[in-house]
Amino acid sequence: MVVAAAIGAIAVAVAAYLVWSGLKTPPSLAGPAPVTDLPVTAQPVDDARDVQLAPVEGDPIQLESPVAGRVTSLDCERGQTWAPGGSNLAIDGQALVNLDTSVPLWRDIEPGAKGADVEALQAALTSLGFDLTATGRFDLATRQAVAELLKRNGRQPADGGTLAAADFFWLPPAGAMAGQCALSPGQTVQAGDAAITTMPTLAEVRVKDLPADLVSGPRVLEVDGLTVPVDGTGAVTGAEALTALTASASYQALANAADAAAPWGAVLRLAEPVTVYPLPPSAIEMGQGADGCVQASDGTALPVTVVASQMGRSFVAFPAGAPPEQVRAEPDRGLTCG
Q: What is the pLDDT of residue 39?
C-alpha cells in the first residue's frame, strides 16, 4: 500500500508539472495544420471526349466517258480515288485528264470565251497549283495552264489554244472514289457510257449523343489522324472535310462492313485549348448558373465562371482579369461579387 501510494503521488506530481510548464504536444504527434489558402495554378484543357459518329450517306454518282472508242488503258479498283490532275482512263490511246470542276466542261472553249464553266475551270486549275486569277475569261494564262496539264499526262494541246472538252474526264469537286468499275481494257464504249460509279459519299457526319457538359468554344473531330471542324450541334457538313472523312481508313472499313450499324469512333475536342484554374468546389461560392465567387487571400471577392467539373475539381476562369496567387479554401459565407 505504501508503494502504491508513492507511485500515485509521483504521477500526480508529474501531471502537475506538465500543466505548470505548458509542455506542448510533440510535432510528430500533432495533427496537420488546417489549410486556409490554396495556390491558383493555370492548366490548359482541350476537353477531349471519346464519341461515336453517325454517317449520313449521299447517293452514288455515275461518271461517263466523254468520247467513243476502245478502252486502251484503265486504272480502276473499288475504293480507289480518281484524283484531279491525273488520268485513270485512256480511249484510243489518248489519256483522259481528270478534272474536278464545279460546272462540268460542256463545250469546247475558244480563246477569249467567258462563262461560269471558265470560272470553274480556273478554280480547278488553281487548286492544282497553277497561279491564275479567276477572271471568268479563257485568257492566255489559263490556256497555258491547260496546255501544261495536258502535257503532264502525255497529251498534246490542241492547235490554236482551244480547250477540247473531250480531252477531260469530269469529276465532282475534290475527286471521286470508285465503287464500281463499269469498263475494262479492250471494251468499246460510246460517249456517255458509264465509266465508274462512285462509292456513296458522306453528305453529313454527326456526333451521336453529344455530351451536354462540353466546354464552350469551337471544336474539331479527330479521326484516323485527320482533324476536321464540327459545328455546335456536332455535325460536319463542309465538302472538304466530308471528302477527307470519306477517304479515311475507319470509314472505308465501316462502308465495307457487313454490319451497317458498326461503331465509328472519334475524339471530339476544343480546336484550341483554353486556360483554366482547378479549384475544389468548397473554394467557390456559387451564384446563378456557372457564375460564382472566390475570395483572394487578402479577402477580395473575385468573380469566376465554372468552365467544367471533373474528378472532384472545378475548372474556373477569371473573366474580370488575371487570377490571384491564392484563394481561401473556404470563402466567407454569403460571399458575393459586385
A: 94
All three cell numbers of 44 = 490548359
State the total domains in the chain. 3
At residue 19, does pLDDT exceed 60?
no
Residue 35 lies in a domain: no
Mean pLDDT of 153-174: 91
Mean pLDDT for all residues in the chain = 88
Residue 44 has φ and ψ, to the nearest 5°, of: -75, 140
Q: Which of 51-55, 154-158, 175-179 has the weakest average pLDDT?
A: 175-179
Q: What is the pLDDT of residues 48-59, one digit of tens each?
A: 999 999 999 888
Q: Measured between alpha carbons, how far is residue 193 from residues 66, 68, 87, 175, 322 in Å?
A: 8, 9, 18, 19, 68
Query: Per-residue pLDDT for 101 more than 80?
Result: yes
Are both 97 and 158 inside the same structural domain? yes
Give domain status of residue 10, yes or no. Answer: no
Q: What is the pTM of this model?
A: 0.61
At position 55, the amino acid (one-letter code) is P
Enclosing domain of residue 288: 274-328
